[in-house]
Write a structure and sequence with these properties.
Elements: H1 14-28, H2 35-49, H3 58-62, H4 69-81, H5 85-89, H6 93-101, H7 109-117, H8 123-128, H9 137-144, H10 146-150, E1 153-154, H11 155-172, E2 177-180, H12 182-185, E3 190-191, E4 194-199, H13 211-221, E5 225-230, E6 240-246, E7 255-261, H14 267-275, H15 278-290, E8 293-296, E9 299-302, E10 317-320, H16 324-331
Parallel strand pairs: 4-7
Antiparallel strand pairs: 1-3, 2-4, 5-6, 6-7, 8-9, 9-10
Helix pairs in contact: 1-2, 6-7, 11-13, 14-16
The chain binds 2'-deoxycytidine-5'-triphosphate, magnesium ion (MG) and manganese (II) ion.
Protein name: DNA polymerase lambda
Organism: Filobasidium floriforme
Length: 343
């Protein structure tokens, strides 16, 4: 089936497949009881996974055997509306609630779904019964700052917040490499959060090990970081991730912040990953697979063998990771500036 990496979960339409699969799950968990819909979504999910080229429109989807007009319409809605498609596909109180709950900071699609399955329909249902729904401190916090944390951040504010964090970081480690990532690096006018990548050239014997811990402590003391939502399992590791919230000044809105540290020799691979967007990453990984490579946030590898379930059997050999250019060169595609990385 997908041993060659051309279709299946690494295929060019996996984002569409995942969107359809979420809808299939919606039906499966008896939020709806429409067996026909559940089966048709699952069927089309599998068909979409096995299409070896990118589906660009609903019209094109409808030409594929097994995809009817209704499903084609849903695929077009996904292409038009992306992540918010659930509410668009099926405009019911249940789907609206799943979409709204999924936007609570710290709540993923599975929990959003289970909250609806357990009877919650509005944010206030959750706010008024946090114990009944087993919500953690983190979830309650996400509910409290729901509006702030879901608002897009103007570019000027992202710049100012990043510069303020960078200033503190460079005091801790003057030779730190620190750059803003995600939508900001792609030049977008607003961002959902502030993404920061840090690293450090170890050739002089120095290291960025432990810098995130010092940085977070210092920013908490300054009142810039307000909450920690997830911490690295090992603060000293060269590769680790911190997630939380912060604000520019005491009166500014609360914003989401992601900080990623990466070993210096993997900087290029981390840069590609953290610049995104997620669909660009997916299509680049798919393209790499077609050339016999495997790309992730650590590097570009050759000779990775997977079984029929896409589970890695061998690690493969690292062929490029240091710079974006190195990776694009091996793949023999022209380096693409961040603002054009939105397929
Ligand atoms: N990323 C990815 N796959 C994911 C999540 C993230 O490839 N499931 C990568 C690509 C993203 C980058 O990480 O561009 C940053 O993730 P964000 O969720 O912060 O997304 P963006 O910064 O692109 O958009 P936003 O402005 O909404 O934050
Ligand atoms: Mg972002
Ligand atoms: Mn982010």
């Amino acid at each position: 089936q997908d041993h060659d990496g051309k279709t299946g979960r690494d295929g060019p339409n996996e984002d569409i497949a995942l969107a359809l699969e979420e809808l299939a799950k919606l039906y499966r968990d008896a939020v709806h009881k429409n067996k026909f819909s559940r089966e048709s979504y699952q069927k089309v999910t599998n068909i979409v996974r096995n299409v070896p080229y990118r589906i660009e429109s609903g019209k094109q989807a409808q030409e594929i055997k097994g995809i009817g007009a209704q499903m084609a319409e849903r695929i077009q809605e996904y292409i038009d509306h992306g992540r918010t498609m659930r509410a668009v596909f099926e405009d019911t109180p249940e789907t609206r609630a799943i979409a709204a709950f999924g936007k609570i900071y710290g709540v993923g699609p599975a929990l959003a779904h289970s909250l609806v399955a357990r009877g919650a329909r509005t944010l206030d249902d959750l706010r008024n019964n946090p114990d009944k729904y087993g919500l953690t401190g983190g979830h309650r916090f996400g509910l409290e700052f729901y509006d702030d944390l879901n608002e897009r951040i103007p570019r000027d504010e992202v710049t100012a917040l990043f510069e303020s964090i960078k200033r503190t970081a460079l005091k801790i480690e003057p030779r730190l490499q620190i750059d803003p990532m995600g939508s900001y690096r792609r030049g977008e006018e607003t961002s959902g959060d502030l993404d920061i990548l840090i690293s450090r050239d170890p050739s002089d014997g120095g290291s960025h090990s432990g810098v995130i811990l010092k940085l977070v402590k210092e920013l908490v003391a300054q009142g810039i970081i307000c909450h920690t939502v997830s911490t690295p399992s090992d603060w000293a590791a060269l590769e680790c991730k911190w997630m939380g919230t912060g604000r520019l000044t005491a009166t500014s809105k609360l914003r989401r912040i992601d900080i990623l540290a990466t070993p210096h020799e993997q900087y290029g691979a981390a840069l590609i990953y953290f610049t995104g967007n997620d669909r660009f990453n997916r299509s680049l990984r798919y393209y790499a697979n077609r050339q016999g490579y495997s790309l992730n946030q650590r590097g570009l590898y050759k000779g990775v063998l997977r079984d029929a379930n896409r589970v890695k059997q061998t690690e493969g050999t690292l062929v490029a990771s240091k710079t974006e250019q190195d990776i694009f060169d091996v793949l023999r595609i022209r380096w693409r500036p961040p603002h054009l990385r939105r397929p």
